[in-house]
Amino acid sequence: MTKITVSVCTYNGESRLPKVFEHLAKQVDVTPEQWEILVVDNASKDNTFQVVQAYQSAFKEICKVRYVVELKQGLAFARTRALKEANSDLVAFVDDDNLLFPNWVNRAIAFAEVHPEIGAFGGQIHGKFGTSPPPYLNKIKYFLAVVEKGQHSFEYLPEKRMLPPGAGLVVKREAWLKHVPDSLSLAGRVGGSMVGGEDLEALVHIQKAGWEIWYNPEMEMDHDIPNARLEEEYLLKIAWGTGLCRHQIRVARYTLWQNIFLTPLHIFHDSYKLVSYVLPFQKKKNEETILRKIELAYRLGTFVSPFSMLKSRWTQKRVGEVD
């Protein structure tokens, strides 16, 4: 019986997928019948299909490799498609730059069997850099989906307002399909947009329904991060985009009437945090200046996020009226 589907969502992943499959081929203590790989091609324009075809043949003794195309672009749509196509109760989200440690699949299955009450869980994500990262990166590594929270498992409690990223996340298919809308407010980073957060929005819906979300340190993987993502320009964009999705995630936590009351409070709170951060801003040594600029971009994005959401919904409404 298939216990877990490892879903690899990719867009133009021709050059990245071989590394991903190389690490998937090294999985230990798991039989071919226990798992499958499902590649969701998010409308690639390169030779992704041909690359996957080659691995379908190469993996015959390892596990079944399936391939589907999701034409609607955005990681949210690709992952939803994976949930619907999966042949197992557990679905793991592996991005095309995620390199799993050899016992990752085994540890995911074992953790789910011991904790049936859990709706989703993530593991440790280590940054794999092509060059030495700047010293300040450790303070903002969460922007790059690097998660290193120690060697003990724990629950992400709702009141803590912290959740794992979608990379390396394992979800219970039932929990997702029952409680996560087919069309989330956040679609993921599409085109030049750096607004993500679709993974967190989905997890909020699962958590609200009463399912637990956990951290499992026995599941380890590397996040293959190219040098370009360590540049100041990219880090500023990712910080801005992370802040810009924050209000949508907040809205998902509450009812309509709660949001009507809480939104002005959130705007006031975000304004206060932004102003209190800007006022003492002083030019210091270069590294600290960059770090503060990145934090400022995040706080500014957070402040703008309610207005950005309203603009997006107004635009969608106008487009709907025209259609």
Automatic annotation (TrEMBL):
Keyword Transferase: yes
TM region(s), chain numbering: none
Keyword Transferase on entry: yes
Keyword line: Transferase
Pfam family, any one: Glycos_transf_2
Molecular function (Gene Ontology), one example: transferase activity
Domain Glycosyltransferase 2-like: 6-137
NCBIfam families listed in its UniProt record: EPS_HpsE
UniProt name for this protein: Glycosyltransferase family 2 protein
Organism (species): Leptolyngbya iicbica LK
